[in-house]
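Sharing a chain and its predicted structure for anyone who wants a worked example. Both blocks are below, sequence first, tokens second.
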Amino acid sequence: MSSPADSPTIEEISATLATHDVRHVGVTTADVLDETRRVIHERKADGLADGMQFTYRNPDRSTDPRRAVPGALSVIVAARSYLSPEDPEAPADGIHARVGRYAWVDQYEPLRVALREVAAQLTAEGHKAQVFADDNSIVDRAVAHRAGLGWFGKNANLLLPGAGSFFVLGCIVTTAEFAPAERVAPDGCGSCVRCIDDCPTGAIIAPGVIDGARCLSWILQKPGPIDPAFRVAVGDRIYGCDDCQDVCPISVRLGSRNTVEFEPGQDVQSHVDALELLDADDATIEARHGRWWIAGREMRWLRRNALVVVGNVAGPDDQRVRATLDRYRADPDPILAEHAHWATERIAVRHA
């Protein structure tokens, strides 16, 4: 077993990660995240999780890094930007539904690749080291906050000083021991409440507190019918919602300093043709969008979302829209049939 002195330094780890466009790195202890555990239990008890699982599933596990790696001493935390220098334009023709920016491409895999390289170095020195990114085992925002990477904004996202919130987070839980960060990122939000004021469903019910039942990102992922009260607010979104970040002055003003180019030939899914999706079979939809989290891997939920988009966007004279909605109103799936009825009525109301 190698001694801690044989391990790479945090400076060396940061240099390795930077070769993968990961430029924000911190370190903290593997101690229990006591405050985060308390908050998760409280919000579950208050019904704010709205059936959401993820790190809510088992708070005692997801707030204890040593449950993931027994004997762990440190957590190395990293953030990788998912802002691109130039956003792709929406296609001019057809009914194209918007996708949340973080889901345009697989933003987590490049981060995992970077972290795995560091984990392999630690393992080679005789330590245990396991990578977690977009994983229910660890509350990544909490360890990133404790590592000093950023502060919790009023929209509950982690905001990085001088950079904003358009980042995916990941970490390495390891038995190697590193000096934890002593810095705490100061709250940079001040009196700004833009994210609260501009949330289309009023999901931010207090600074840093999200009602899952009202959050469009969760509404578009969870199973079951979409609450009619929120269908108009869905607008042209089919997966994800960026509004609370898009209006954040810090993220908008400083995010452009932290961008990452798309890989050549990468399939960038910033928009989805809603009618094309509604015509596709399950296998085709999963082949195109299977990396998205879809409840129960049931493609019907993306169809449900697409029907709401059609209702909010389509014109009354589009024959293809009429044929699609006619077909879905007769669908044996009662949820899809009901959403098709709603979409038909919504188009009529919008153009009355």
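Comments welcome. The radius of gyration is 22 Å.
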